[in-house]
Amino acid sequence: METNRLEAFSDGVLAIIITIMVLELKVPHGSDWAAIEPLLPVFLSYVLSFIYLGFYWNNHHHLLKAARRVNGAIL
Is the pTM of this model over 0.70? Predict the structure, then answer.
């Protein structure tokens, strides 16, 4: 079988992971910098995790472009 189905499945899994990550972000309870400051470590860890997932997604697509076919063992 072609690699399109595995590519679409992995894209969906990564989209769900990113969505779950976003749901964990909290809204600040004020409009000044003092309200945002406690949330900075969580936000920065989210940004780093998002960048890591972007690298993973990019490398995964390059790997699947190099593969011609996918068999049941790979799935």
Answer: yes
